[in-house]
Structure formats: C-alpha cells, structure tokens
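haha ok so turns out i had the wrong file open the whole time. this is the CORRECT one, sorry everyone. sequence first:
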Amino acid sequence: MTNKKLLDPALVYPAIAASFSKLSPRVQWRNPVMFVVYLGAILTTALWVQALFGQGEAPAGFIAAITVWLWFTVLFANFAEALAEGRSKAQAASLRSSKQNVVARKLKTAAQDAKAEITDSASLRKGDIILVQAGEVIPTDAEIIEGVASVDESAITGESAPVIREAGGDFSAITGGTRVLSDWVIARVTANPGEAFLDRMIAMVEGAKRQKTPNEIALTILLVALTIVFLVVTVTLLPFSLFSVAAAGSGTPVSITVLVALLVCLIPTTIGGLLSAIGVAGMSRMLGANVIATSGRAVEAAGDVDVLLLDKTGTITFGNRQAVKFIPAPGVSAAELADAAQFASLSDETPEGRSVVVLAKEKFNIRERALLSHEVEFIPFTAQTRMSGVNYDNREIRKGANDAIRRYVLDAGGVFPEEVSRQADEVARRGATPLLVSENHRVLGVIELKDIVKGGIKERFAELREMGIKTVMITGDNPLTAAAIAAEAGVDDFLAEATPEAKLALIRQNQAEGKLVAMTGDGTNDAPALAQADVAVAMNTGTQAAKEAGNMVDLDSNPTKLIEIVEIGKQMLMTRGSLTTFSVANDVAKYFAIIPYRVCVDLPAA
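then structure:
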C-alpha cells in the first residue's frame, strides 16, 4: 500500500462534491452549531432575493456578502468532515471484491470419475455436488463427502499455514474463495447464492455502527448549550430595537441580516466547524507514524481506548510456524535427528520446511547436501499421507504428523516408542506443533514447530497495561494452545476458537458496558469485528478486506504501533480541549462585548 498524501486529488475532489451533498437538512442537523449557521445562510439568501426586488431590509450587496460568508462557513465544515471520513466508505465494497465467480465442476453423482458439468459458481445451489482439484479455487461454501486435501485459507482467515480438510468429523467444511493446494475433494454445496461465508461478512460489516466517544458527546452538549444561550440573546435584540426606535420616534431598527451575522459570531462556530478539521490534523500525524488513518474520529477515539483486541496470527505472532527445537527419541542423539530432519526438508519450500534446514545448520552446523537428481527420490507431502520425505542411499526418511508417522511405522512392523508419544503430547500442550521424523521405520524424535511471538511485544503490552488498557488476544486455536501463546505474549485475556460472530459479540459486549474498543487484525474473517470496533487497526500485510474494514492501516504491520496511536489520540484530545477552552472563553468575552450595544439599543434617544 502506498502512503498517499492527505490532500491527494483522489480524496479532495470527492470531498468537494460531498461538501455540497451534505447540505441536506438530514445531514446538517447532526451538528447543532453548524445547523444554526446553515439556517442563517438560508434565511439571508431569502432576504437577498427579496432585496433584489427592491424590498430588502438592507442593501442587496451587504446581504449578499453576509450570505456568501455564511455558505462558505457551512461548506468548509462539510469539506473538513468529508475529507476526514473520505476513506472509510469501502468496507463492504472490498469484501464484495473478494467474491469470485469461478468455474465449478458440477457432478451428478458423488464419484470422481462421474461426468462433470462445467458451470460457474453463481449457478450453484445448496445440495449440488462439486469436484475441486489441486490448484483450483473452491467456488462456494461446501462440505466434503469424499477425499482429503490441503487447503490454503489465507485469503479468508489470514492464516498462512495450509490446513487439511477431509470428509467426516470437524474438518469437512470448506469455504468459497479458498484454494485447494494438493489432491482433490468431492463436496456438497451448503449455501445458496447470498448465504455464503463472504456474504455473511458483508452483512455484518454493513450492519456495524461505531459509537461516539464520551468526549465527543460531552463537547456536543456543551456546544448546544452555548448555542441556545446566544440564540436567546440575539433573538431578544430585535424586539428591543423595534421598541427603542418606536419610543424615540426616529432611527432604524437593527436588520435581521445583521442579527444573523452577530449570532454566527457569538455561537461557538469555530469549534463546531473545526471539529472535523482536528480529525484531519490527527490523520496527518498518523501519516508521520506510518499509519494511514481513514477516520478523524477514530484518531480521537484512540485517546480513550479501554480494551484492545488483537488477532493472534500476523499481529502477536509472525504467522509462519518455525522449527525451534529437536527432541530426540530414547537412544537417538539430537544431531542424528537434526541430520535426518534436514535431509527430509531439503525439497520442502514451505516456511516450516526451510526453518528445519536453518535450525539444523545453526544448532549442529549441518550443511545442505549437493545431491544428484538420479540418486535421490523426494517424497512430496500429500493430504492423504500427511508426510513428506526422501529416499537416498538405503535411507528412507519420513517427516510428518504424529498419527501419520505412527501408522507408517507400525504398518511396516516397526516400534513406536511411548516416550515419543509423550514428547509429542507435551509439545502440543505448550501450544506448539509436533512433527515426527523416522528413518527406515525407526522413530528418531520430534521437531517442535512454533508460531513465533514477535519480539518486544510483551514489554509493549506491559506499557498498555500501565496506561489502563486491557489486552485480549483472539484466535481460532484451541484453548490450550491459546493459553500458552497468551501467557508468552503477556496479554490480559484471550478468546479461543473465535468465530467472526464471537469476535463481534465480544466487541459489542464491551461497548454495551460503556467501553471503547480497539482491535487489530489482518484476515477477512476479522472484517466485521474491525468494522464494529471504535478504533480498528488493520495490518498492511493482511487481506484487502481487513484493510478496508478498519479505520486505520499500519504500514509497518506492527501491532505494538497501537501505543503510538493511543499517544497521538491523547494529543489530539489535548488539542481539541485547548481549542474548546479558547472558543468558549472567546464566546463569553463576546457576550460581554455586546452588553454596551444592547444598552444603547434599549435606551431611548435624548
């Protein structure tokens, strides 16, 4: 994502157009101070038209000058608000762009060799049978009824690691828009058009509403009170002026045009018209911190945040599982395990596979080998075997999941040590992933794969805690894994096995308690929650839907950047407080300044 200028023509031109579209009374009444200016502009416009026909209360040129300034004031306030909110209109549009009308293979029977009818995903209906092969995009939400495959769900979940989906059990559901990486599946469509996962995301984003900040509500009440006071003061001037002129028998009463101009000068027009401009200034400060803020109000809300929700993958952790430890089986050295693990990973181009090679090199100085293609046979990973490996020089090395290696060794008549099983369970309890290695049907030990927590994040969370902000990690992991990562990262609480609906419910629950909620995320499934949160920071490395649903995008993809965001938000609150104090003091001074004028109007001429 490029760092756009704040006054980029792509933002300014729509804001200018919005300045005029916001002249609707239904929009103007939401800002009571500017609504009074808006009504005054309409009134002086009518008086100007009347003056053109020779029936004006004042010269037409004078009325026209006042009218132009009033309309300019209203349009400037509209422009500032439109510019401050100009980037936050594409939430649902981005989600819709994630939907793809892809080619689908529709089957008449649930058999791979059945004749396939080529159609498009939009024509699929609930109950239809489809075939999806390696490299193809899954056309719609479905449930696998035959086959097993490795599926890349990163476009939807933000999780970089592929997952295994197979018929039966809890892992049979597949989501439209994801991609099959290996093997094939036959699935039954579970959603009609408009009812799929992405459609539900769109509906939740469009239904999400952000609440006003407490400071904004309090300031609005103050501005309304001041406006009412000065409105009463100004309205009383006309009857007093008429009475004074009648009692004196000469003179000219004050004109309505002058009273409208006086009212606009008395009421807190400055703060009322510049509230959104303060938001624009906050957005500019965010650009300096390498954060694109799409909402000025979100910058201000950041100063009052009470709860911070963080998506685990890509925010708290890097998202790619890395090999961190070799745990040898009884009677096996760690170096022997590392050698076999690196050998089996030479053709594995996944981040996990490369990390095994690097770890073996760092721990035991084991270098990669130069192998001739005719001497070695690499065994690729498949969803059916859930293993990969290599055959070379009478060595048959396999690397894979716990149950897959167990079955592979036992089927060949080998022995699976119970100590290795215990080691694998212990790794899983720590929130990591166990990967077993065997050579010639002999189990060598366990590789511990871990989703690495980003450096320095625990200390930054401690800073947030000192600022009174509660941190909550949200993840789709099981509670055991989530608890382990939460403890390592130092968050205050966590939500495990989180669905989009659960995230949204958690945010609404906190907001119902009067708390302001900030959230960081990077996946399409985070979009509804980001849209609902008061401050929504999307990682630049995340999906486009997440970035559009948020009201801020961190170009550095650093979740600890929220501390800087909160500091900038607090600075913006101080700026607005100073401007409010000045404006109120100025208005009070103006009130006392008109007392002599009012006395002169009230007193009859000598």
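The chain has a mean pLDDT of 80.
again sry for the mixup
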